[in-house]
From TrEMBL:
Pfam families: Acyl-CoA_dh_N. Gene3D superfamilies: Acyl-CoA dehydrogenase/oxidase, N-terminal domain, Butyryl-CoA Dehydrogenase, subunit A, domain 2. Residues 6-94 form the Acyl-CoA dehydrogenase/oxidase N-terminal domain. This is Acyl-CoA/acyl-ACP dehydrogenase. It comes from the Bacteria. PANTHER family: ACYL-COA DEHYDROGENASE (PTHR43884), ISOVALERYL-COA DEHYDROGENASE, MITOCHONDRIAL-RELATED (PTHR43884:SF12). SUPFAM superfamilies: Acyl-CoA dehydrogenase NM domain-like. One of its GO terms (molecular function) is flavin adenine dinucleotide binding. InterPro entries: Acyl-CoA_Oxase/DH_mid-dom_sf, AcylCoA_DH/ox_N, AcylCoA_DH/ox_N_sf, AcylCoA_DH/oxidase_NM_dom_sf.
Length: 327
């Protein structure tokens, strides 16, 4: 029986990579690509075994993310969001029926988490009104619209952050504005707007003090770094044996070993390496790299995207230093 990482590598090579150019050109992510991941059990990588998941550890999830991103970043990007909801629902210990559907990919989820804690914008808020929770606010970056069934929304409730499941269906009180992106346009990334949007109170999965959410944020940065590592792996495989192989291994080791204080710099290192690797692929490809739709051209745009995806002030500061913009 293949491991989840081997399964992801096989699917990335046989299905995702061959489809990637068309996904990028059309801006449409075929449901069949996500169905294939679900059929292979990859929607339940970290889900508990008694819910139909693979009960794998975070290191395995990181390796699966890397393999899928090497095949097609848009597919990996949409699929990755799902695991935030799986993790929260498993921790909550409620709705075992829904957790089983999530682990098997029968129900698919996205996340809308950062707007509850961003210091530069008004947070999404939640209040109770009778038997309902009422949500207000905007989330500028939500991925997977029209490809997911549920969103895990983080919302401020006084000094707490509440985590609420919301149906990913447009309503007068729930609207979206598509975001036009330089890469991964097929990811269905939108701005989500909530205006007095009601959901049943049993959709509340839990609450966490705001101070604890902020303190724990750095610890959750590891997995996103694997998207950058996947791009580096793609470049290294296309270029052939080179120093990129050792650089990739070193960046992976650094991310794996980093504690919460070190993770922002390790994440920055992975993104900077993806940017450099994409440049190397462009040079190695030659003039064909400037043709729209070439693998090198698409990879360069995706590396640009990953320089700012999931960023934090500490990551940005480290990247500016690495790229020579600050001392």
């Amino acid at each position: 029986m293949s491991s989840p990482v081997e399964t992801a590598r096989e699917l990335a090579a046989s299905l995702l990579a061959p489809a990637a150019a068309d996904v990028d050109a059309t801006g449409v992510l075929p449901r069949g690509l996500l169905d294939a991941l679900a059929d292979a059990g990859l929607y339940g990588v970290i889900g508990p075994a008694d819910a139909g998941g693979l009960d794998a550890d975070e290191a395995t999830l990181a390796a699966v993310v890397e393999e899928l991103a090497a095949g097609d970043l848009a597919t990996a990007f949409v699929w990755l969001q799902h695991h935030g909801a799986v993790g929260w629902l498993a921790a909550a210990g409620s709705r075992p029926d829904l957790l089983a559907d999530l682990c098997r990919g029968r129900v698919r989820a996205g996340i809308a988490l950062q707007a509850a804690t961003r210091p530069d914008a008004a947070p999404v808020t939640v209040r109770r009104d009778g038997g309902d929770l009422v949500l207000d606010g905007a989330v500028p970056w939500v991925t997977g619209w029209a490809l997911v069934d549920l969103l895990l929304v983080a919302a401020r409730d006084g000094d707490d952050v509440a985590f609420v499941l919301v149906d990913a269906v447009g309503r007068p009180t729930l609207t979206v504005v598509p975001q036009s992106l330089v890469a991964v346009q097929a990811s269905g990334t939108v701005e989500l707007r909530l205006s007095g949007h009601r959901v049943p109170a049993d959709r509340l999965l839990g609450r966490t003090p705001l101070a604890d959410v902020g303190a724990g944020d750095a610890a959750g940065l590891r997995i996103n770094g694997s998207l950058s590592l996947g791009l580096v792996a793609r470049c290294a495989r296309l270029i052939g044996p080179s120093p990129l192989d050792d650089d990739l291994a070193a960046a992976r080791t650094r991310l794996d070993a980093a504690g919460p204080e070190e993770l922002p710099d390790a994440r920055a290192g992975a993104a900077a390496l993806a940017h450099r690797a994409a440049g190397a692929l462009v040079v190695a490809t030659g003039s064909g790299a400037v043709r729209a739709g070439s693998v090198a051209e698409r990879t360069a745009r995706e590396a640009l995207f990953l320089l700012v995806f999931g960023s934090r002030p500490t990551i940005r500061a480290s990247l500016l230093t690495r790229l020579g913009a600050t001392g």
